[in-house]
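Supplementary Note 3. Input sequence used for the single-chain structure prediction.
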Amino acid sequence: MSVTSKLEFRPKLWSALRHYSMSKFQADLTAGVVVGIVALPLAIAFAIASGVSPTVGLITAIIGGFMVSAFGGNSVQIGGPTGAFIVIVYGIIANYGLSGLALATLMAGLILVLMGLFRLGTVIKFIPYPIVVGFTAGIALTIFSTQINDFFGLGLTDIPSAFLPKWGMYFANFGNIDWFTLAVGLVTLAVIIITPRISKRLPGALVAIIVVTAAVYILGLNGIGTDIQTIGTRFGELKAEMPRIQTFSLNIETINMLLPSAFTIAMLGAIESLLSATVADGVTGSRTNTNTELIGQGLANITVPFLGGIPVTGAIARTMTNITNGGRTPVAGIIHAVVLLLIFIFMMPLICLVPMACLAAVLIMVAYNMSGWRTIAGMIHAPKSDMSVLIVTFLLTVILDLTIAIEIGLLLAVVLFLRRVMENTEIRVYSQQLDVAEGTDLDAAHHEVLDVLPGVEVYEIDGPFFFGIATKFEELMRTTPGEKPVVRILRMRKVPFIDSTALHNLEILIKSSQDDNIHVVLSGVRDTVRQTLVKAGIDKMIGEDHICSHISQAVVMANHIAEKADAKK
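The predicted structure, written as discrete structure tokens, is reproduced below.
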């Protein structure tokens, strides 16, 4: 059976249109317009912070936002460029240029599609929370660090990308603060903070940009603050021109060079989009098809590089804005993309007037909201292992590199999972008497106690029999005191699966036991585990009759073998 035959690729838009109505369209229209307006300053700010033109940010929000809504697995998800990608995008451009970014984004899109086809959506959602909090907080601090130059008007160029050298340069140049630029940034922050207290429906970032840009423009006409840097002075005239379709040349050398960056983009995009979808499901009561969502995100990231865009993912803030304004179907997300397209066509000259300090303030608020400091403060009393993982992921993200943080974070996730599984998997040893119903809900009156003759040892594995437990079991077998038994019973009633390492160790155990004239009997083997054992030839090694369906049958057989061995002495 093929992978795709098991996958139901059913974008939410398809099902939403079957029962669509005018009332739903009115709600989606309102939400889509509001979200489009909210997304405008964020798309511009994220693009500039990532090291690309504001035009690229808008193109990404338009194309990516449309693709995520059209092909995604969540009804209210809003896609576009996000703050989480700033660090990785900036680093890729610095090392490989815009063509390298385009190729990495394309490869990341392919990885996301494959993840959806191989049904890995549910797996991504189980990445430990401390890891998500750690690298999100690290990204927030890194974003904040990238805005200091524009916020304070330091006028620095060739700023190091590494965290510590960057702050070293800042501290060495804080005497060059442009106080008018700083005032613009502080006023922008104040407007963003005050606006929601006046009306929660007003997008604070957009209100701040309009008010502050208008004020700076008017002051400039009167000769005040004429040297303040704006989008226009940094990027020149912005034209409402759709980019040309780009072509790529892929070769094995390029793929090897960009694969780590592409993997980071894919994992970060998957985590952020599914986290956003989970939050949205909690508010709306809907259910995301996680694998379809990954495929939708992948298709968006495959498409945007051909139009010069940057990576796309689900955006929590814009998704929540969509929900609170009444959006309930993917049509709202499509309308948001149309609104951005109209702004792109008709309002690009006005965008050139926006001060860079104003955008820096917007991103500082984004970093503050991303930081999750309240969550971190609430986790102080969490287990030490969780806090250790959080701190390690945070430090790796800030000091080293987001790619390293993602890779080591995922490794930590696997290690934590294995550790907890091993802590919850027990191996018990029985001799003389065995309570058949031990570990079940039966009361003591219904328990059956079996007599186990000398020379018979019973080992019960309670949990998955995988490589970590296989090693633990092997050590237990070597260290069990007493004479060598005649029969070893492996009770496997609570083993849901067995992996190749455990099979290999089991084969070694059987061979070494047979060399010592010790019989091995398996009991309580589930059908799925039995199929695995049969494929590995375990039934032939020990004999079909030595794989018993119940422990009572296994103990009777083992006692009979032990009696025979005792009689021969």
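Residues 252-284 form the longest helix (33 residues). Residues 1-5 have pLDDT under 50 and may be disordered.
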